[in-house]
Amino acid sequence: MLRRAIPNSAQTLPVLGLGTYQSFDHSAGNAAALSDLCQVLGALKAGGATLVDTSPMYGRAEARLGEAAQVAAVADSLFFATKVWTTGREAGLQQIEESFRLLRVPCIDLFQIHNLTDWRTHAPTLEDLRDRGRIRHLGITHYHRGAYPELERVMLTRRFGFLQLNYSLAEREAEARLLPLAQELGMAVIANRPFTQGDLLARMRRRAFPKDMERLGFTGWPQVLLAWVMLQEAVTCVIPATGDPTHLADNLAAARAAASLDPGQRESLRAAYEAAL
After folding, report:
1. How many other C-beta atoms are found inside a 10 Å radius of the C-beta of residue 158?
2. pLDDT 10s digits, 202-232
3. Quick one: which H or E segment has residue 108?
Protein backbone atom coordinates (compact mmCIF):
# COMPACT_ATOMS: atom_id res chain seq x y z
CA MET A 1 0.00 0.00 0.00
CA LEU A 2 1.32 3.40 -0.95
CA ARG A 3 1.52 5.83 1.96
CA ARG A 4 1.68 9.62 1.83
CA ALA A 5 2.84 12.04 4.48
CA ILE A 6 0.38 14.35 6.20
CA PRO A 7 2.19 17.66 5.64
CA ASN A 8 3.49 19.38 8.77
CA SER A 9 3.12 16.12 10.66
CA ALA A 10 5.18 13.03 11.38
CA GLN A 11 2.17 10.92 10.44
CA THR A 12 1.51 9.17 7.13
CA LEU A 13 -1.70 7.79 5.66
CA PRO A 14 -2.32 4.85 3.34
CA VAL A 15 -3.42 6.20 -0.03
CA LEU A 16 -6.65 4.15 0.07
CA GLY A 17 -9.38 4.98 2.58
CA LEU A 18 -13.10 4.36 2.86
CA GLY A 19 -16.12 6.59 2.36
CA THR A 20 -19.46 5.94 4.04
CA TYR A 21 -21.89 8.06 1.99
CA GLN A 22 -25.05 5.96 1.38
CA SER A 23 -23.08 2.73 1.99
CA PHE A 24 -23.21 2.89 5.84
CA ASP A 25 -26.70 4.38 6.23
CA HIS A 26 -28.43 1.31 7.70
CA SER A 27 -31.05 0.91 10.40
CA ALA A 28 -29.96 -0.24 13.84
CA GLY A 29 -30.57 -3.95 14.35
CA ASN A 30 -29.91 -4.89 10.70
CA ALA A 31 -27.69 -7.89 11.45
CA ALA A 32 -26.79 -8.68 7.83
CA ALA A 33 -25.77 -5.09 7.11
CA LEU A 34 -23.75 -4.91 10.34
CA SER A 35 -21.95 -8.13 9.44
CA ASP A 36 -21.00 -6.70 6.04
CA LEU A 37 -19.75 -3.46 7.59
CA CYS A 38 -17.67 -5.39 10.11
CA GLN A 39 -16.16 -7.44 7.29
CA VAL A 40 -15.38 -4.26 5.35
CA LEU A 41 -13.65 -2.62 8.31
CA GLY A 42 -11.76 -5.81 9.16
CA ALA A 43 -10.57 -6.19 5.57
CA LEU A 44 -9.64 -2.51 5.46
CA LYS A 45 -7.39 -2.98 8.48
CA ALA A 46 -5.94 -6.23 7.16
CA GLY A 47 -5.19 -4.54 3.83
CA GLY A 48 -3.23 -1.78 5.53
CA ALA A 49 -5.73 1.08 5.14
CA THR A 50 -6.95 3.26 8.00
CA LEU A 51 -8.92 6.41 7.07
CA VAL A 52 -12.72 6.17 7.21
CA ASP A 53 -14.67 9.30 6.29
CA THR A 54 -18.23 10.03 7.39
CA SER A 55 -20.59 12.91 8.19
CA PRO A 56 -23.85 13.79 9.99
CA MET A 57 -25.14 14.47 6.47
CA TYR A 58 -24.94 10.74 5.68
CA GLY A 59 -27.99 9.68 7.66
CA ARG A 60 -27.09 6.95 10.17
CA ALA A 61 -23.56 6.40 8.83
CA GLU A 62 -21.75 7.78 11.88
CA ALA A 63 -23.73 5.55 14.24
CA ARG A 64 -23.24 2.44 12.10
CA LEU A 65 -19.53 3.16 11.68
CA GLY A 66 -19.08 3.56 15.42
CA GLU A 67 -20.99 0.36 16.10
CA ALA A 68 -19.22 -1.72 13.45
CA ALA A 69 -15.77 -0.48 14.50
CA GLN A 70 -16.44 -1.63 18.05
CA VAL A 71 -17.94 -4.98 17.07
CA ALA A 72 -15.08 -5.68 14.66
CA ALA A 73 -12.57 -4.52 17.31
CA VAL A 74 -10.78 -2.21 14.88
CA ALA A 75 -11.59 1.22 16.35
CA ASP A 76 -8.07 1.68 17.69
CA SER A 77 -6.62 1.04 14.23
CA LEU A 78 -8.76 3.51 12.27
CA PHE A 79 -8.21 7.14 11.34
CA PHE A 80 -11.69 8.61 11.94
CA ALA A 81 -12.69 11.59 9.80
CA THR A 82 -16.06 13.26 10.19
CA LYS A 83 -17.62 16.67 9.65
CA VAL A 84 -19.72 19.46 11.10
CA TRP A 85 -22.66 20.33 8.86
CA THR A 86 -24.92 22.95 10.38
CA THR A 87 -25.10 26.69 11.03
CA GLY A 88 -24.50 28.56 14.27
CA ARG A 89 -22.01 28.04 17.08
CA GLU A 90 -24.31 26.22 19.52
CA ALA A 91 -25.76 23.96 16.85
CA GLY A 92 -22.21 23.18 15.73
CA LEU A 93 -21.10 22.30 19.25
CA GLN A 94 -24.10 20.01 19.71
CA GLN A 95 -23.48 18.25 16.41
CA ILE A 96 -19.78 17.81 17.15
CA GLU A 97 -20.50 16.26 20.54
CA GLU A 98 -23.05 13.95 18.93
CA SER A 99 -20.37 12.78 16.49
CA PHE A 100 -18.11 11.86 19.41
CA ARG A 101 -20.99 9.91 20.98
CA LEU A 102 -21.92 8.05 17.79
CA LEU A 103 -18.36 7.21 16.77
CA ARG A 104 -17.59 6.05 20.34
CA VAL A 105 -14.06 7.48 20.43
CA PRO A 106 -12.49 10.03 22.81
CA CYS A 107 -10.45 11.70 20.05
CA ILE A 108 -11.39 12.19 16.38
CA ASP A 109 -8.46 12.28 13.99
CA LEU A 110 -9.92 14.73 11.48
CA PHE A 111 -12.86 17.12 11.81
CA GLN A 112 -13.91 18.86 8.60
CA ILE A 113 -16.35 21.63 7.81
CA HIS A 114 -18.74 19.97 5.38
CA ASN A 115 -19.20 21.86 2.11
CA LEU A 116 -17.80 25.00 3.84
CA THR A 117 -21.09 25.39 5.73
CA ASP A 118 -20.74 28.39 8.09
CA TRP A 119 -17.00 27.81 8.16
CA ARG A 120 -16.12 31.11 9.83
CA THR A 121 -18.28 30.14 12.83
CA HIS A 122 -17.02 26.56 13.13
CA ALA A 123 -13.30 27.20 12.61
CA PRO A 124 -12.70 28.70 16.11
CA THR A 125 -14.66 25.84 17.71
CA LEU A 126 -12.56 23.21 15.93
CA GLU A 127 -9.33 25.07 16.68
CA ASP A 128 -10.22 25.07 20.37
CA LEU A 129 -10.96 21.32 20.30
CA ARG A 130 -7.64 20.70 18.57
CA ASP A 131 -5.78 22.77 21.15
CA ARG A 132 -7.46 20.71 23.90
CA GLY A 133 -6.44 17.43 22.24
CA ARG A 134 -9.93 16.20 21.37
CA ILE A 135 -9.29 16.35 17.62
CA ARG A 136 -6.01 16.08 15.72
CA HIS A 137 -6.55 17.78 12.38
CA LEU A 138 -8.92 20.35 10.84
CA GLY A 139 -10.22 20.30 7.28
CA ILE A 140 -12.63 21.74 4.74
CA THR A 141 -14.61 19.89 2.09
CA HIS A 142 -16.70 20.25 -1.02
CA TYR A 143 -17.88 17.92 -3.75
CA HIS A 144 -18.57 20.35 -6.62
CA ARG A 145 -16.34 22.41 -8.89
CA GLY A 146 -18.68 25.39 -8.51
CA ALA A 147 -17.30 25.81 -4.99
CA TYR A 148 -13.65 25.84 -6.06
CA PRO A 149 -13.19 29.64 -5.94
CA GLU A 150 -14.44 29.74 -2.35
CA LEU A 151 -12.38 26.67 -1.44
CA GLU A 152 -9.31 28.49 -2.72
CA ARG A 153 -10.06 31.57 -0.63
CA VAL A 154 -10.51 29.48 2.52
CA MET A 155 -7.35 27.48 1.81
CA LEU A 156 -5.39 30.72 1.71
CA THR A 157 -6.39 31.51 5.30
CA ARG A 158 -3.97 28.68 6.26
CA ARG A 159 -6.29 27.58 9.08
CA PHE A 160 -6.85 24.05 7.78
CA GLY A 161 -4.52 21.12 7.26
CA PHE A 162 -6.81 18.97 5.12
CA LEU A 163 -8.75 19.60 1.91
CA GLN A 164 -11.38 17.15 0.65
CA LEU A 165 -12.76 17.54 -2.86
CA ASN A 166 -14.05 15.63 -5.87
CA TYR A 167 -11.42 14.21 -8.21
CA SER A 168 -11.61 11.51 -10.87
CA LEU A 169 -10.79 10.88 -14.51
CA ALA A 170 -14.18 12.46 -15.29
CA GLU A 171 -13.72 15.42 -12.93
CA ARG A 172 -10.19 16.81 -13.27
CA GLU A 173 -10.83 20.50 -12.62
CA ALA A 174 -8.99 20.40 -9.29
CA GLU A 175 -5.72 19.92 -11.18
CA ALA A 176 -5.80 23.49 -12.47
CA ARG A 177 -5.40 25.36 -9.18
CA LEU A 178 -6.48 23.54 -6.03
CA LEU A 179 -4.15 20.53 -6.09
CA PRO A 180 -1.04 22.66 -6.81
CA LEU A 181 -2.13 25.15 -4.14
CA ALA A 182 -2.59 22.36 -1.59
CA GLN A 183 0.96 21.22 -2.26
CA GLU A 184 2.25 24.78 -1.96
CA LEU A 185 0.43 25.35 1.34
CA GLY A 186 1.28 21.93 2.78
CA MET A 187 -2.29 20.62 2.93
CA ALA A 188 -3.24 16.95 2.86
CA VAL A 189 -5.80 16.12 0.15
CA ILE A 190 -8.63 13.60 0.41
CA ALA A 191 -10.17 12.76 -2.97
CA ASN A 192 -13.86 11.88 -2.93
CA ARG A 193 -16.10 10.68 -5.79
CA PRO A 194 -13.32 8.73 -7.59
CA PHE A 195 -16.08 7.01 -9.60
CA THR A 196 -18.16 10.21 -9.97
CA GLN A 197 -20.80 8.69 -7.67
CA GLY A 198 -21.03 5.57 -9.82
CA ASP A 199 -21.73 7.31 -13.14
CA LEU A 200 -18.19 6.74 -14.36
CA LEU A 201 -18.29 3.05 -13.45
CA ALA A 202 -21.58 2.52 -15.27
CA ARG A 203 -20.17 4.12 -18.41
CA MET A 204 -16.86 2.23 -18.37
CA ARG A 205 -18.40 -1.18 -17.74
CA ARG A 206 -19.76 -0.99 -21.28
CA ARG A 207 -16.23 -0.59 -22.65
CA ALA A 208 -13.81 -3.39 -23.45
CA PHE A 209 -11.00 -3.79 -20.93
CA PRO A 210 -7.58 -3.47 -22.61
CA LYS A 211 -4.95 -6.19 -22.38
CA ASP A 212 -2.19 -3.73 -21.49
CA MET A 213 -4.08 -2.85 -18.29
CA GLU A 214 -4.22 -6.54 -17.41
CA ARG A 215 -0.46 -6.73 -17.85
CA LEU A 216 -0.12 -3.93 -15.29
CA GLY A 217 -1.99 -6.04 -12.75
CA PHE A 218 -5.54 -4.65 -13.06
CA THR A 219 -8.59 -6.84 -13.53
CA GLY A 220 -11.21 -4.23 -14.47
CA TRP A 221 -12.02 -0.57 -15.02
CA PRO A 222 -12.86 0.20 -11.37
CA GLN A 223 -9.28 -0.63 -10.39
CA VAL A 224 -7.80 1.50 -13.18
CA LEU A 225 -10.00 4.48 -12.34
CA LEU A 226 -9.08 4.25 -8.67
CA ALA A 227 -5.36 3.71 -9.25
CA TRP A 228 -5.18 6.80 -11.48
CA VAL A 229 -6.36 8.93 -8.54
CA MET A 230 -4.00 7.17 -6.12
CA LEU A 231 -1.00 7.91 -8.34
CA GLN A 232 -1.64 11.67 -8.24
CA GLU A 233 1.14 12.78 -5.90
CA ALA A 234 -0.92 15.71 -4.56
CA VAL A 235 -3.56 13.26 -3.28
CA THR A 236 -2.96 11.94 0.22
CA CYS A 237 -5.90 9.51 0.36
CA VAL A 238 -8.81 8.53 -1.88
CA ILE A 239 -12.07 7.39 -0.29
CA PRO A 240 -14.37 5.28 -2.49
CA ALA A 241 -17.54 4.57 -0.52
CA THR A 242 -18.67 1.00 -0.01
CA GLY A 243 -20.29 -1.27 2.53
CA ASP A 244 -19.75 -4.33 0.32
CA PRO A 245 -16.83 -6.63 1.23
CA THR A 246 -16.43 -7.66 -2.43
CA HIS A 247 -16.07 -4.06 -3.58
CA LEU A 248 -13.63 -3.34 -0.76
CA ALA A 249 -11.49 -6.30 -1.87
CA ASP A 250 -11.46 -4.87 -5.39
CA ASN A 251 -10.38 -1.45 -4.07
CA LEU A 252 -7.56 -3.03 -2.07
CA ALA A 253 -6.42 -4.91 -5.18
CA ALA A 254 -6.31 -1.58 -7.03
CA ALA A 255 -4.12 -0.15 -4.27
CA ARG A 256 -1.73 -3.11 -4.49
CA ALA A 257 -1.48 -2.78 -8.27
CA ALA A 258 -0.90 0.98 -8.00
CA ALA A 259 1.91 0.38 -5.50
CA SER A 260 3.77 -1.66 -8.12
CA LEU A 261 3.74 1.16 -10.69
CA ASP A 262 6.00 4.15 -10.97
CA PRO A 263 4.38 7.63 -11.21
CA GLY A 264 5.20 7.85 -14.92
CA GLN A 265 2.87 4.96 -15.69
CA ARG A 266 -0.11 7.00 -14.51
CA GLU A 267 -0.30 8.51 -17.98
CA SER A 268 -0.92 5.07 -19.49
CA LEU A 269 -4.01 4.67 -17.30
CA ARG A 270 -5.43 7.97 -18.51
CA ALA A 271 -4.62 7.07 -22.12
CA ALA A 272 -6.41 3.71 -21.80
CA TYR A 273 -9.45 5.42 -20.34
CA GLU A 274 -9.62 8.04 -23.07
CA ALA A 275 -9.08 5.47 -25.82
CA ALA A 276 -12.03 3.46 -24.53
CA LEU A 277 -14.48 6.38 -24.50
Report:
1. 10
2. 889 899 999 999 999 999 999 999 999 999 9
3. strand 108-113
